[in-house]
Specification:
The protein is mostly helical and 140 residues long. It is 81% helix and 0% strand. The protein has a single domain, classed as Four Helix Bundle (Hemerythrin (Met), subunit A), CATH 1.20.120. It is elongated.
């Protein structure tokens, strides 16, 4: 498996772990009788501050899937993983760190740190886009 495929697998795994956290909280609260299964707010703001942050970290990961997952899939589908391999794992690490900081805190400093990790991801994705454009312009 190349680094691009590994990063995509890691991204999907991270998404599933965040979702599992939400499901776990719902399951515990439902089975303990503290909540009815149909009583949870879809945005996660009705249980705790942590659950709200977990919902937002999950949603942020989902929102980034089109550009992160899309570029990784583009590299795999066009056999151009040489474009993404070098920065695929740093991008995944930046995504995991962004989510982790989000889960820990929403303080001003934490938001700035999260923004830094998001900026790293965006910079990598824009770099990849420029590389793909150059490759595809030479093919046409």
């Amino acid at each position: 498996m190349n680094l691009t495929a590994l990063a995509l697998t890691g991204y999907i795994t991270w998404f599933l772990l965040l979702l599992t956290g939400i499901v776990f909280i719902h399951t515990v609260l439902t089975l303990s009788g503290k909540r009815h299964a149909n009583s949870f707010s879809p945005n996660g703001d009705d249980v705790s501050d942590f659950k709200l942050r977990l919902h937002r970290a999950h949603a942020n990961t989902l929102e980034a899937m089109p550009y992160i997952g899309g570029l990784l899939l583009l590299a795999l589908a066009t056999d151009n993983t040489h474009v993404t391999d070098q920065l695929a794992l740093p991008l995944l690490l930046a995504r995991i760190m962004q989510s982790t900081v989000h889960l820990i805190s929403t303080s001003n400093l934490a938001v700035l740190v999260r923004f830094t990790f998001l900026s790293i991801q965006l910079a990598i994705c824009f770099y990849w886009v420029t590389q793909f454009i150059q490759i595809f312009m030479h093919v046409v």
